[in-house]
Amino acid sequence: MRQENAREAAWSALERHAESLRGTTLKALFAADAKRTEAFTLSACGLTVDHSKQRLTAETLALFETLAAAVDLTGQLRDMRAGAPVNITENRAAMHVTLRGAGG
Question: What is the reported pLDDT for 86?
């Protein structure tokens, strides 16, 4: 029950935050943070992803991290890779990870 409460609290906080950003323009976000592009761009394995053009802030990312912890995302990913039944609708493993060579 405690994990469920944490999950609900994390979702609620993220929803409130999203609502607070609803009227915010990208122009305003860039004006408030001269290093926005640098802060919200990630590069790995020859791929670059620029999230600076999305309506998000450092607080948004922190709230997503809180949600990930509340739902035990790390544990769920570990279970999925190990072949545990993570498909709750069919109570079976998500085998696409294994088929791609990244499983167990």
Answer: 78
Helix (H, G, I), strand (E, B) or coil at 85: strand
pTM, full prediction: 0.79
Q: 101 or 55: which carries more pLDDT confidence?
A: 55
| Nearest CA-CA partner of 39 in 58, 54, 25, 66 | 58
Q: d(Cα 5, Cα 3) in Å, to the nearest integer? A: 5
Bridge partners of residue 43, in order along the sequence: 48
- pLDDT of 1 reads 54
**Mean pLDDT within 55-61:** 96
Taking CA atoms, 64 is separated from 55, 71, 79, 93, in Å, by 14, 11, 20, 25
Cα angle 35, 37, 42 (rounded to 5 degrees) comes to 120
Tokens representing 53 are 């053009």
Single out the residue of 94, 84, 67 nearest to residue 3, CA to CA.
67
pLDDT of 100 strictly over 90: no
